[in-house]
């Protein structure tokens, strides 16, 4: 079983970034699972003083979730030309972790207008020694379309595009 962990950079209840990750859950082939990381809003603000031998329990849980995942899917909005604070906070907690380096990452951008978010995340993730699978990463014009996960998965254009990227990502994971 290939286990993927999905992280939405938006905490909104009805979020297009969350919806595209739900579409991924529906589109992966058998033998592959996508679980949603639900802990983003509850993580403490990153503080190097707390990042010692006994980090907070929520950070241990985060690192365990990352460690047991074969790959990470991140879909994030762009906020004020930057990475949303809650997502950057999670990444900061992973900088010194043993679980994160070499982790395969698939980036999804739900708006072509948000042209900064993918390069910004690439820069941070490469600095953290993630293995960003660039032939999987994709931008889809989903913002404002009011589609839920099922609507995205069944859409004539978006469903096949996501499936192709997921296939590239799973192939890249299995190639190592
Ligand atoms: C505080 C804030 C700042 C934003 N800044 C940008 C921005 O710099 N560039 C951009 O393309 N969209 C920006 N947006 C629009 C978000 O990208 C848009 O709300 C996002 O698609 C919503 O995703 P969600 O439905 O997953 O929450 C901003 C939105 C908020 C709330």
Topology:
Elements: E1 2-8, H1 16-27, E2 32-36, H2 57-68, E3 71-75, H3 85-94, E4 104-109, H4 117-127, E5 131-132, E6 138-139, H5 149-154, H6 158-174
Parallel strand pairs: 1-2, 1-3, 3-4, 4-5, 4-6
Bound molecules: flavin mononucleotide.
Walk me through what this model shows.
By secondary structure, this protein is an alpha/beta fold. It has one domain (2-174): Flavodoxin domain (Rossmann fold), CATH 3.40.50. Helices cover 39% and strands 15% of the residues. The chain has six helices and six strands; from the N terminus they run E-H-E-H-E-H-E-H-E-E-H-H. It has helices spanning 16-27, 57-68, 85-94, 117-127, 149-154, 158-174; strands at residues 2-8, 32-36, 71-75, 104-109, 131-132, 138-139. Strands 1, 2, 3, 4, 5 and 6 form a six-stranded parallel β-sheet that branches. Helix 3 links the parallel strand 3 and strand 4 (104-109). The longest helix is centred in the last third of the chain and has 17 residues, at 158-174. The radius of gyration is 15 Å and the shape is globular. The model has no long low-confidence stretch (mean pLDDT 97). The structure holds flavin mononucleotide (FMN).
């Amino acid at each position: 079983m290939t286990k993927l962990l999905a992280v939405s950079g938006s905490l909104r209840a009805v979020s297009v970034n969350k919806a595209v990750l739900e579409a991924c859950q529906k589109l992966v082939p058998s033998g592959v699972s996508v679980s949603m990381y639900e802990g983003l809003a509850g993580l403490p603000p990153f503080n190097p003083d707390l990042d010692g031998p006994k980090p907070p329990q929520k950070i241990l849980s985060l690192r365990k979730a990352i460690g047991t995942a074969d790959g990470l899917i991140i879909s994030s909005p762009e906020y004020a030309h930057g990475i949303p604070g809650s997502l950057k906070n999670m990444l900061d907690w992973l900088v010194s972790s043993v679980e994160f380096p070499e982790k395969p990452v698939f980036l999804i951008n739900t708006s072509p207008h948000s042209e900064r978010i993918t390069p910004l995340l690439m820069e941070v993730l490469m600095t953290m020694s993630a293995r960003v699978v660039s032939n999987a990463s994709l931008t889809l014009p989903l913002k404002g379309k009011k589609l839920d996960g099922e609507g995205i998965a069944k859409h004539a254009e978006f469903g096949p595009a996501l499936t192709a990227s997921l296939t590239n990502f799973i192939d890249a994971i299995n190639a190592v």
